Please model this.
Amino acid sequence: MAQELATQETSDIATTNGDANRRAMAFTPAVDIFERDDTTVIVADMPGVAPNDVDVTLERQVLTLRGKATPYAPEGYRALSSEYRVGDYIRVFTLSDEIDQDKINAAFKNGVLRLELPRSAETKPKKITVKAA
Amino acid sequence: MLQTTFSPMRTMDPFADMRRMQSAMNRLFDGTRTAGQPATYPAVNFWAGENSVLMTSELPGLTEDNIELTVQDTTLSIRANFPEPETGDDLVWHRRERVEGAFLRTIELPFRVDPERVDARFENGVLTVEMQRPDADKPKHIKIKAS
Model:
């Protein structure tokens, strides 16, 4: 199960803190999260991001999804109207289960990131025997 | 007697302020999206070239094969079906924010486009459509003769 670290219910624009070099705004990507058997699947929309510019990090229980968008400016054209803005994507989750880091599966296709996070064997319920002193 | 000095030549509109407020409110709410689902989907950006127009739109999750694009005279239509989300009894949903279902959006273009010279590409979830103005419709330079 995944718990979001910072709830961004009010806005879909997040600020990148600490990263002073990149002043571009960052968006919160829309995600689908579901669980099947022992695997948590996170699907995130990051249109405009090249597969090589997607960065997923898992540090302890904190999962960070980042996508760096390349600003689009066609040659010989000037902006006429814009209904959406292009920017980076960032979203942070805290995972409640221990994840088997070696078995994480990440795929990026058509602007969609799909992460498969299998639960590690250690977190499956263990019985602890109480010894009499 | 109370005299009202309403000059007939001056346009005094007692509702002007109210309307101004209303348009300000509309502008305020135009930018808000409810749960990631804007009123018009998908959002499109337009770019103008000398004799062409370029449109971009973010459509993550679709493929080049399931976007239907039609151009006729000055209208452009985008129609697509998002793939069905995964289903199953063993599935436990935690978050479901991504767009699903089908959409159709028709956009009026600033000029007629040549349907034979439309270049559409789909890369990393972004659709780019470049449309050219037909040669016959291009503005012509007219030479002025001295009489």
Chain B touches chain A through 38 residues (CB under 8 Å). Chain B has one helix and eight strands. Chain B has a mean pLDDT of 81. Residues 3 and 12 of chain B are 16 Å apart (CA to CA).
